[in-house]
């Protein structure tokens, strides 16, 4: 069966770009990227896992379009997203004599996309880059919208720049190489889009989620497309997160505290934290009388049906108490004038940003969630 390729346009004046979505895009990378180039050479930044599984396909695809390439292969994992590997990448790009007219390719998941995008933002005061995201999380979130950066020892993503890519190639065939856990972690971000702004999409995910997880390519393309459409629409309204872009952080205030408490590692993947965080944000919304109690129950039922982490009880090992978790939320970038900004919801598909959240309500939600751990 011929698979259709979908295109989502990000219409930022002067920095417009397309997100192409579909299986087999790596093989066409050369033809798709060639129109951006002033000379037929690109530099690729990737990690060891992606290089082992997919580099040959990308290089063959580039070569088919007459494009030569050099690659920097970084260690996999969140620890790469710090000053050491960042300065290594920047120096490598300079040593490769990358010019203003050249294009850097970020080939990998969120860590590589963020780091390589930030390196492209600063080398020669900014060169263009193409995102080729290989994880579901990167295809639906981090490769789109121009947030690039690295972690500080004081917190995640605290160093960075807005730098929009020139093109995003989301080859949905690459999702076939992900572990079930990594795929479902990315699915946490997909669910987030339904919850924040499209109830019909959440209905669709309830019906199609299992097929999507099992590998149904048509469903995967549709899910990535709808997620990217929603992200593009929000980024067009508010590129630098002065307002509405914060909606994309539904579930993230809880998530960032949980990630900090669990060491940003294998105990809790980012998308797993987002899924748990979305359930907690809806629980908080229900307790504040904003949405019905059925909404958090329905969300938890869907996450459970997908085999995902849903509750704090699903996180292995010790967690700090509610007060300490609330403290960790205070480190979040979404603090404005010392007040935590939360994304709450009036119902599934109807989220909004507010700083008006009493901390005793948040503590109540956290205490009850921790108590369920027994
Ligand atoms: N991942 C949230 C954003 O791009 O704004």
Structure description:
The mean pLDDT is 95. The chain folds into two domains: 6-177, Rossmann fold (3-Layer(aba) Sandwich), CATH 3.40.50.1970; 199-371, Dehydroquinate synthase-like - alpha domain (Dehydroquinate synthase-like, alpha domain), CATH 1.20.1090. α5 (136-142) runs parallel beside α6 (180-197), α9 (252-262) crosses α10 (270-287) and α12 crosses α13. It has 13 helices and 13 strands. It has helices spanning 29-33, 48-64, 83-95, 110-122, 136-142, 180-197, 199-214, 217-237, 252-262, 270-287, 294-305, 322-329, 359-371; strands spanning 6-10, 17-22, 41-47, 68-74, 103-108, 128-133, 147-152, 155-162, 167-171, 335-336, 339-340, 342-345, 351-354. Helices cover 46% and strands 18% of the residues. The protein is globular and about 60 Å long. By secondary structure, the chain is of the alpha/beta class. Bound molecules: glycine. The site of glycine has 6 residues, from loops.
